[in-house]
Amino acid sequence: MEKVINGRIQIRSDTAANWKVKNPILLAGELGIETDTNSIKYGDGSAAWNDLKYISFQADVTCSVQSTGGSATVWIEVPWENVYITESPPNGTDINVIEITS
Hints:
By secondary structure, the protein is mostly beta strands. The protein has one helix and seven strands; from the N terminus they run βαββββββ.
């Protein structure tokens, strides 16, 4: 029998300037969003924010962030059925992979 769990995912977000000053270490696979540039980074569990690479897309991808009262809503629109956010192809056990399936 299928079990349904309702919930929300909150992704860390701040301005580019605040990220740079705070320079936190994101958990492995944790996303961080710059609300003023719409840029995204993901953590590896050891590198500080300033040392992480931005996620880059090689297709027509739309990303927008709407900040309201200290939280942010993120929309990522991609023209594919399956999307993997990673630096290397997923192997099924890579905790730094986020799979989004339509």
